[in-house]
Inverse folding.
């Protein structure tokens, strides 16, 4: 059964993602709405990545979804119909959801990024805008918290890119690392596509690691104290992914042999720590 035939809750349960895990701290209604939004993002991503569908059909379907989102017209798809209620309920622009679709759709044909600025534009659509929608559902008070969402989105997506360099190259031929960075460190596309580790590659990934760390720091600086209590789920995500980033660096980026993650017990400890902190009013 593919994701288009599942309910929002079934998609979240099946994915077992770090985001789905972090939602355990939310009140019931906000958790349900975040699961709906997560399912929307998951289904859109699955459309773009479906190996059984040709590029033209993928682009046509995502274009239809984007039109429905911008028009606010339910297309008769259970997940999208449900997700279309969110902008009105939480007061955020429908255009944000359209931007997410645009970002995901770019994966269908765009498999190289020349500059870091170009990559950052992609990260904004597929991660920072997801953060912008999420903080509306979480319930923030300060406008400055949107900058927190944007910076954290960059950090999370760069962590994903570093972790999945080997898998993306092997399975899809995509190389998200900027071409200018590959050239700077003397790493070739063949190195990545053939799964060839090297000290040059490690130095390149150290460079991207420092970039990701800078965005985690920028996110923390941008988060107003008044909104910390509302951002528990985001902070759980931040700690999970920053811990994965540190684990990657410590292990010297085993990107061709494994997909680095955290065991459930460690994620449960992170969740429990943040819930206790929130309960004690220490956010």
């Amino acid at each position: 059964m593919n994701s288009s035939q599942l309910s929002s809750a079934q998609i979240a349960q099946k994915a077992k993602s770090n985001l789905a895990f972090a939602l355990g701290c939310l009140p019931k209604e906000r958790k349900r709405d975040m699961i709906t939004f997560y399912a929307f993002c998951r289904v859109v991503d699955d459309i773009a990545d479906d190996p059984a569908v040709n590029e033209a059909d993928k682009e046509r379907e995502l274009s239809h979804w984007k039109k429905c989102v911008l028009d606010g017209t339910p297309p008769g798809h259970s997940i999208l119909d449900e997700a279309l209620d969110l902008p009105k309920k939480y007061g955020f622009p429908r255009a944000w959801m359209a931007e997410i679709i645009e970002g995901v759709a770019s994966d269908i044909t765009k498999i190289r990024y020349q500059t870091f600025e170009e990559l950052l534009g992609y990260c904004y659509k597929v991660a920072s805008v997801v953060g912008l929608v999420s903080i509306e559902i979480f319930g923030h008070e300060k406008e400055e918290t949107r900058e927190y969402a944007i910076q954290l989105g960059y950090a999370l997506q760069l962590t994903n890119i570093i972790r999945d360099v080997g898998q993306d190259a092997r399975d899809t031929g995509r190389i998200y690392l900027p071409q200018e960075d590959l050239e700077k460190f003397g790493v070739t596309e063949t190195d990545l596509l053939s799964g060839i580790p090297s000290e040059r590659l490690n130095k390149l990934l150290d460079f991207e690691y420092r970039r990701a760390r800078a965005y985690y720091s920028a996110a923390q600086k941008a988060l107003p104290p008044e909104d910390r209590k509302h951002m528990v789920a985001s902070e759980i995500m931040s700690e999970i992914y920053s811990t994965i980033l540190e684990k990657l660096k410590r292990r010297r980026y085993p990107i061709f042999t494994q997909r680095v993650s955290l065991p459930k017990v460690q994620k449960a400890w992170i969740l429990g720590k943040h819930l206790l902190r929130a309960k004690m009013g220490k956010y």
In short: The mean pLDDT is 92. The two ends are 41 Å apart (CA to CA). The chain has two domains: 7-109, 112-283. Residues 7-109 form one domain.
